[in-house]
Amino acid sequence: MEKQIVERITGSCPSRNPVFREQALERQSQLTKPPGSLGKLEDIAVRLADLQQSHQPGLDNIAISVFAADHGVAEEGVSAFPQEVTGQMALNFLNGGAAINVLATQLGASLEVIDVGVLNELPDAPGLIVQRAGKGTANSAREAAMTQQQLQVALQAGFDAVERAIAHKADLFIGGDMGIGNTTAASALYCALLGLSAEQASGAGTGLDQQGIARKAEVVERIYSLHQHQCGDDALEWLRCVGGFEIAALCSATIHAAQSGLAVLVDGFISSASALCALKINPDISDWLFFSHISAEQGHRKAMQEMNQTGLLDLQMRLGEGSGAATAALLMRAACALHNDMATFAEAAVAGKDDKA
Fold first, then answer.
1. Catalytic residue among 26, 221, 321, 347
2. Is 321 assigned a catalytic role?
3. pLDDT tens column, 82-110
4. Most buried pick, 41, 146, 266, 274, via CB within 10 A?
């Protein structure tokens, strides 16, 4: 693989002046509420003040990039939906008819769709970016999912999406996914990088019954066994051998956003697997990641525990597309508004807990 992109995604993140975090904590202590009474909303605001190096953190300009690609492993019967749904749903995104479109409108966020490797090429449309690594990955249950060159293309697609977000002065990046078979790829990554069993990591995906889930777990176990010797503990190699083009793009986007000083709001099961790869490749990005929710997809809660992460929401969502992250972004905006706009005890002439009557 071309050395340049590897060097880019292993570089460090920007240093930060701790004064912004300290002053944000001080402001929280002066707002007209008991200390800690807004719970994680306070933590979100303080973290954003630190990351944005601002006394008034905000999420006015949110960029959403949905990466779409097909998976050769779909031929193993691991999805309740046929493979052509990937392209059909990508068209639905471009036509404004999906959940992520509705949520992006609510946020006033920019939304683009990147074809990183849908089986059948999509027609030109506003909002479509084409950076194809191939016509879907190879079947990872039989061979490596992608070549080194294909991985390079997919990583570059994620890198370039963040470059566009930065050019539009985004203050939060959300990556979404679309790809029939991609929960199988994500499950294999959780097995490889966290030590989860195939049974722990394999869930219903698009709607498998118990028999289908058992078959999926068997396929995940085969994938892991096939590539274990080749990949060892190399996260980038696991990404190449068992991942998907869209998962690789999400991984690169997550890293490059953090390296660029741009906070990332990670979506659910698939995006968390890409974030896991990203953290293994470049642990320096950790502070820049917010995890939006706990997916209803089996294995996600366990994976999040193993990653020492908690989601902002637990709404039994498992759609993908970036929908969980877009929902959580509304909560993060509320956290910023509370931090910036609430009165302090002094401003409101309200006695604090240590003031004498």
1. 321
2. yes
3. 999 999 999 999 999 999 999 999 999 99
4. 274
